[in-house]
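Here is the promised in-class demo. Please do not try to memorize the tokens; focus on the logic of going from shape to residues.
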């Protein structure tokens, strides 16, 4: 195999770890980092865990393997969790996928593992593998899993799931099925041969599955509660800190002391077991030594030289391990430098062997990367790079400052310093880029860059084309495929001479600034439009009897360094009018925003249907912009942008509602139902915690609880009796789906319960039976029927009640194919003079998707007062 391919396979190990939170102790720097790298040198231990979703990984096993054993471990999540809910913000769908991608990366920064993904898009809950494969092309996903296996080259694969109905969720079943298939075929060059242009076939040696839900099948128990003196924490504690990064999924965990274990079952093995047949380690029977790889080389002078240098290399690595913590870094640096020299001699020798040495070459490349990190950290060599801006526009010039610091106590030399920017960018350096660095010396180097006028906006590689129903699309030669995202936009690459050998360090160029309340903040660089365009609402409802028009607000944000001005307008379908037709804007500096309102009306009566419109900003120099971006920024994740076209739609439907209604909305876990209520032309107030605790509820005819509000808002739980008293006095309370805490806490007007697992209907086309056709819910002010349940997306609903008291009226019945019918999706009870409604129907998904029937049902629910 060519050296370039070997380097490609080992590339991830050369990439610097993402920075820890500013102000935090970072385990990727200093002597802790040196010790961590030394634990992994001189052996080859690689484990890949495969699951379906973010949060399916075994973080305890990952932490033990990487932090404790110095192994290389990775987690492959088939999807990015786009189909779930969001406890911390408004993002759903693709936006939620970006949030959960970043949460996985935050977790990996703690447990030290790598992260991979397939093309799968989380389309929502499914009850079988067969249903899941209707959305996920089997061969495409299998190709991705095989790609990761060939890229990462694990000896051990651990499947989180069994691939059987025992796994529950159909996506879980598929993850188990694909893990087993990839184990079987990744070593077959006849399968997915197109991958072999940059990868080699790879045959894993052992396949395990987790038995966390099936303890009786356990064949191997791995202790993960042991204290690691290097970190002062157990692997379980590290893992729980990692697990707690899944904040959008409500995954905060206690970091408990004491024994803990991970339980596994060995499913298949290609290695001979010991005479007892009982395992004590994942790697039992697996040769993880470099010596074993050297033995694959034919006998002769080259092999003799390899064995000699390997002995020398391992001796020096062991000496370095013993020297850690002796109070002086200079002797340690010398030993590490000698070890690196020995290692590089072995790499040179493999060139003479050819393809027979490919496995050894890859292992040595991986050790070289780790050893360079260890040597540079022991020497105190630090490189950081900062730009004067983070949101860059085509044509802009930026200044980058690169700092190289010799924080150690020996002389080092900066031999080369370059900036790596995308093709077509102009990079100009000022001053010398090579310099001798005596101990304690900090040197600063400056570069000027010009962004090309035709530069692409910085979208993740998996979002550069439209997303299919259940899968992302990317070219087969996409270099970042299966990775969480693209590499940094610009990187500083430095070469140093340290104790007689050279090391390389790479630093992402970031923008750094101080927040007076928080401290130092660092943000990645993005190329964005000079004018970002956003339109609100993205979905509007036009009742056919409407005659007042619809208002769309167009938000404009400028990023051009010298300011920008122009006109904004809407492109609307034939037969619609806009006032004003055009509106001037001026954005004199980056970050300045303005909003323009447009009134839209049809010229004459229209029929039901969907009408598309688009917001445009046109600058005075004739540049045209119709795209904007949302900023996704949470304290525990990296700053990310989500680009969206400035497009909206009008759903013209037969709909009536009393616009004098006063509605209160208690937000839950990130939904847009309050906006949908407003789209009906009804006044809606979002009730914050103070309003929940002490606001005047009598001002409202109807109050709606957001999804998972009783989970997300402890103030609501403490003040639930206020709302029940308000219902008793004549109000209508509509409670959207809640989780088990709501059912277990006696929060409903009358007893409700939900079974575990909860009743749900995942087929969005499942037939719906209206059980009481004459009920006001289906007749006032809109007459509802089967057509109102057509065109739904992702699912019918979830967390349906399974049992209820006799006071509730049961209004709907539905069932997934092959399942028993469920009736707990829409329940209504009179409570005093008011009405109490519980619904598990997924209105929070249907309304943003513009489903007409969902709007008509919502209008009727809001109009129940007095019926």
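The designed amino acids, position by position:
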């Amino acid at each position: 195999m060519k050296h370039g391919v070997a380097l490609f396979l080992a590339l991830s190990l050369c990439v610097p770890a993402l920075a820890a939170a500013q102000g935090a102790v970072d385990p990727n720097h200093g002597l802790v980092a040196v010790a961590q790298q030394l634990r992994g040198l001189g052996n080859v231990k690689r484990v890949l865990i495969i699951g379906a979703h973010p949060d399916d990984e075994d973080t305890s096993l990952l932490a033990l393997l990487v932090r404790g054993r110095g192994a290389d471990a990775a987690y492959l999540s088939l999807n990015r969790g786009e189909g779930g809910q969001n406890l911390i913000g408004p993002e759903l769908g693709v936006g939620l996928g970006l949030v959960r991608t970043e949460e996985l990366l935050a977790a990996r920064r703690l447990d030290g593992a790598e992260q991979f993904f397939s093309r799968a898009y989380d389309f929502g809950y499914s009850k079988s593998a067969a249903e899941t494969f209707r959305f996920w092309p089997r061969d495409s996903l299998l190709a991705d899993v095989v790609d990761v296996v060939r890229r990462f080259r694990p000896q051990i694969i651990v499947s989180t799931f069994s691939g059987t109905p025992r796994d529950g969720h159909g996506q879980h079943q598929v993850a188990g099925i694909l893990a087993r298939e990839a184990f079987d075929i990744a070593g077959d060059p006849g399968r997915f041969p197109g991958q072999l242009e940059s990868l080699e076939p790879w045959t894993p040696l052992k396949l395990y599955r987790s038995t966390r839900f099936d303890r009786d099948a356990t064949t191997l128990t791995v202790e993960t509660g042991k204290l690691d003196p290097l970190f002062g924490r157990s692997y379980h504690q590290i893992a729980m800190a990692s697990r707690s990064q899944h904040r959008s999924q409500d995954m905060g965990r206690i970091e408990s002391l004491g024994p803990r274990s991970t339980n596994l079952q060995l499913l298949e093995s290609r290695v001979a077991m010991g005479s007892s047949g009982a395992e004590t380690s994942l790697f039992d029977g697996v040769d993880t030594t470099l010596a074993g790889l050297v033995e694959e080389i034919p006998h002769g002078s080259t092999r003799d030289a390899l064995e000699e240098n390997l002995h020398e290399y391992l001796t020096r690595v062991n000496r370095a391990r013993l020297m850690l913590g002796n109070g002086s870094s200079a002797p340690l640096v010398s030993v590490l430098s000698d070890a690196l020299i020995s290692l590089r001699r072995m790499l040179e020798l493999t060139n003479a062997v050819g393809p027979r040495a490919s496995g050894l070459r890859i292992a040595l490349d991986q050790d070289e990367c780790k050893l360079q990190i260890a040597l540079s950290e022991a020497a105190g060599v630090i490189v950081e790079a900062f730009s004067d801006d983070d949101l860059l526009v085509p044509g802009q010039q930026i200044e980058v400052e690169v700092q190289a610091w010799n924080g150690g106590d020996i002389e080092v030399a900066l031999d080369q310093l370059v900036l790596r920017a995308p093709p077509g960018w102009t990079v100009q350096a000022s001053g010398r880029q090579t310099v001798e660095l005596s101990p304690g010396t900090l040197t600063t180097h400056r570069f000027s860059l010009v962004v090309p006028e035709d530069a692409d906006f910085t979208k993740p590689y998996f979002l550069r084309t439209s997303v299919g129903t259940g899968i992302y699309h990317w070219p087969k030669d996409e270099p970042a495929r299966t990775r969480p995202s693209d590499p940094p936009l610009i990187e500083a690459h430095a070469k140093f001479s340290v104790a007689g050998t050279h090391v390389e360090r790479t630093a992402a160029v970031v923008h750094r600034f101080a927040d007076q309340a928080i401290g130092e903040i660092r943000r990645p660089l993005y190329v964005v439009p000079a004018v970002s365009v956003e339109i609100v609402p993205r979905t509007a409802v036009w009742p056919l009897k409407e005659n007042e028009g619809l208002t769309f607000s167009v938000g404009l944000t400028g990023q051009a360094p010298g300011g920008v001005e122009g006109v904004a307008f809407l492109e609307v379908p034939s037969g619609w009018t806009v006032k004003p037709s055009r509106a001037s804007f001026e954005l004199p500096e980056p970050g300045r925003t303005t909003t323009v309102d447009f009134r839209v009306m049809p010229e004459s009566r229209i029929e039901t249907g969907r009408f598309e419109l688009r917001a445009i900003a046109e600058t005075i120099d004739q540049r045209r912009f119709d795209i904007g971006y949302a900023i996704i920024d949470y304290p525990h994740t990296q700053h990310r942008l989500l680009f969206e076209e400035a497009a909206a739609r009008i759903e013209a439907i037969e709909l009536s509602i009393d616009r004098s209604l006063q509605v209160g909305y208690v937000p839950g876990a990130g939904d847009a139902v309050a906006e949908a209520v407003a789209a009906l032309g009804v006044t809606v107030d979002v009730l914050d915690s103070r309003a929940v605790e002490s606001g005047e509820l009598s001002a409202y005819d109807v109050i709606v609880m957001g999804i998972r509000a009783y989970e997300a808002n402890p103030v609501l739980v403490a003040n639930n009796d206020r709302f029940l008293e308000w219902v008793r006095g004549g109000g209508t309370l509509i409670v959207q789906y809640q989780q088990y805490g709501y059912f277990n806490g006696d929060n409903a007007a009358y007893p409700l319960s939900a079974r575990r697992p909860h009743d749900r209907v995942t087929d969005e086309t499942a037939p719906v039976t209206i059980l009481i056709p004459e009920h006001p819910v289906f007749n006032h002010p809109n007459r509802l029927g089967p057509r109102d349940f057509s065109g739904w997306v992702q699912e019918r609903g979830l967390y349906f009640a399974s049992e209820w008291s006799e006071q509730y009226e049961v209004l709907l019945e539905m069932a997934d194919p092959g399942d028993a019918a469920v009736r707990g999706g829409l329940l209504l009870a009179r409570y005093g003079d008011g009405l109490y409604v519980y619904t598990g129907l997924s209105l929070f998904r249907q309304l943003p998707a513009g489903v007409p029937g969902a709007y008509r049902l919502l209008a009727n629910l809001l109009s129940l007062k007095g019926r």
